[in-house]
Write a structure and sequence with these properties.
alpha+beta, OB fold (Dihydrolipoamide Acetyltransferase, E2P)
Length: about 170
Amino acid sequence: MLIYILPFYLEGVGDVCKVKDEKGERIVYIKLSNMLKNIFKERMLDFKEVRRKCRKVLNQKNIIPLMLNEKEILLPIKIRKPRTSRDEVYGYINFHFIDKIEEGEILLKDGQKIFFIESYRSVIKRTKLVKTLEKEFCDKIKLDKFDFNAPATKGDIAFILNEILYLKKLLE
């Protein structure tokens, strides 16, 4: 399970990202946007399509939460000031791993603090967007929402495939 991906500037190297998941924290020597695309690719999801659907549901164009699955919704948070133009300043934190949001810092469930440089109000607004995403996508997951007499769509089949792969990973 992904906990966070944060942009980080390493002197002499440039833009890298810190990634924390069940394996622990590590520095990956690629840009954050490429790391996000790689994570989506590993999970057999189309990054552009997920962003498009999230934009459509939230009716917002930029700085939107991204939904990997019902347990991993990535909340964008402004972590640092840009050093140059086109510099990546937003990190992504798994919403379900956030314990508490305070002014200027986020406390994770494992006790780690992540500092941010945007207004508390903006972060709270984005958490409400996450709840909207959850409501839209996770309600469809419940079996009572499925119409068993209608033909299966590509989305239904993709959902079932993701669930099978998730269960297979748990059993390994």
